[in-house]
Amino acid sequence: MALRCAITGDVPKVAVISPKSGAVFEKTVIEKHVASAGTDPINDEPLDVSELIQIQAPEFNVPRAPAATSLPSLLKTFQDEWDAAMLETFELKRENHKLTQELTQSLYQHDAATRVIARLIKERDQARQALESLQASGVAPANNAAPAAQSEAMDASSDESASGLSPEVVARIDQTFAQLSQARRKREKNPEGLATPEQIGTYKQQEVIKGVHSSRSGNIHSLSYRASDNMLLTSSSDKTAALYNLESKEVVAHYKGHGKKVLDARLHPTADVAVTGSADNHVKIWTASTGENVATLEMHSQAVNNVNIHPEGQLVVSCSDDGSWAVSDIATQSNITLVNDAKAKSIKALRVHPDGAILGAGNESSTVGIWDIRTAKCEASFEGHGGAVTSLAFSENGYHMATGGIDSTVRFWDLRKLNAFHTLEFDAGHEVNSVAFDHSGQYCAVGGSDVRVYMVKKWSELVKLEEHKKAVAGVAWAPNAQSIFSAGADSVIMQHGF
To answer: Whereabouts are the WD repeats (predicted)?
Structure first.
């Protein structure tokens, strides 16, 4: 089989091979191309004439160039022009092939963009329908509140026009809300084994736990208790969180990785997961039992004050000094949405309602906003504190909320009537850092300058616990109010019971 030039398609007189592509060329043709382009015409790799390898063939004596007017000279001229035409045709074919590929790619991109736009329009329409549905039958209707309160609630909206949650996430929240709200209607108001007011009045110190955090810089900022395995999770100024086993009386894991003090830490109620928020602006997800950092979420631009594990089980809700609250996904370890409160420079306290549809957010300007998580809309706004709101808790009955502030008060709100129905007032300078309802909703603990327990509705002080040497930052209830845990700036965890 005769060799043919890869450019002209003719049998070459002097055949050479390119080491870059392995193709055969007529020597004169390839030399012209290399002189003009400097590349191999097949794959565009750099090529020099000196790299060409000549194929051995019988030698022919090339006659001297005849005069320009001779027939051989004309034939040579025609040959040169033919070679040039073939070279140009080859280049045009190559360029045409490239353009065809680029056009195909552009068409695919256009089709993908069209599909994305169509999906976003569909999600927008679904979000609007969800908002209309919420306004028709959502949390406490604004019609029951004073006109001024209604106006404030509608004004305190997010900077975003939609929540940013996908229809799938919204559906999960809706399903959780439906299940939990229905179960709440059937719950017992006085569960068997619930401690009586008289028993709570006899609370005494049962456990004193020291050494979980550094004694020098280990101020404890939060306390989370999981009854299923009797575990306590604390966060501290020593830049760590710690998991303590009350059965074995030992620290199971230290969570190290934050660059500044850890302001809040929460245990997942059923999974081996813990979540922390820190002054380094980050939210971290951990394997609870080992202290392994699974993911770091960077949603906020300032300190993260509170983190919450949503009742749905796969979502984390956090708030920050940058005036925003955010939703993240534990399973995908990713951020979902960030909502800015236009009226708050800083959100100091945030808790998700036990049913999962709404959250309460207390800010530095004394206001508490009730937000619908699914639409990122502020549905109600409560005012009454004389300064920043430092703590917040929802009752398991579903319609009571307690808030504590730097004005040394704890206020109790009715989510059905959108008003405050009772206020606990303490002496000036008395710290209120943590409020917590027990699971029955009949008792409320207040942690600050000391720990006090009140009976809801009667508002009688059942017990005052003053063993902590410094301010208490976190309180948590054991099942049926059999005991209460507290921790604070003295780096000590205490358990009181009867």
So the answer is: 213-254, 255-296, 297-338, 340-381, 382-423
Contact, 358 vs 372, CB < 8 A? yes
24, 12 Cβ separation under 8 angstroms: yes
Q: How far apart are CA 344 and CA 323, in angstroms?
A: 5
Q: Is 76 exposed, middle or buried (0-12, 13-18, 19+ CB in 10 A)?
A: middle
| Count of C-beta atoms within a 10 Å radius of residue 365 | 16
C-alpha 59/C-alpha 48 separation (Å) is 24
**pLDDT at res. 484:** 98
Instruction: Locate the domains of the chain by residue range.
Output: 1-58+74-137, 148-497
| Cα–Cα distance, 281 to 301 (Å, whole number) | 6
Cα separation, 107 vs 103, in Å, equals 6
- C-alpha 328/C-alpha 306 separation (Å) is 13
In the predicted structure, residue 319 carries a pLDDT above the cut 90:
yes
The pair phi, psi for residue 149, each rounded to 5°, is -65, -40
CB 84 within 8 A of CB 92: no
Q: Which long-range contacts (CB under 8 A, 24 or more apart) does 363-371 make?
A: 363/323, 363/388, 363/389, 364/388, 364/389, 366/405, 366/407, 367/156, 367/343, 368/392, 368/401, 368/403, 368/413, 369/153, 369/156, 369/341, 369/343, 369/344, 370/139, 370/153, 370/415, 371/325, 371/339
pLDDT for res 123:
84
Higher pLDDT: 141 or 433? It is: 433
Q: How far apart are CA 309 and CA 300, in angstroms?
A: 17
> Radius of gyration of the chain from Cα atoms?
37
Q: What is the pLDDT of residue 135?
A: 58
**Percentage above 70 pLDDT, the chain:** 91
pTM: 0.67
What is the per-residue pLDDT for 143?
39
- Select from 3.30.40.10, 3.10.350.10, 3.90.650.10, 2.60.40.1120 the CATH code of 1-58+74-137: 3.30.40.10
Residue type, 433: N
* CATH, range 148-497: 2.130.10.10
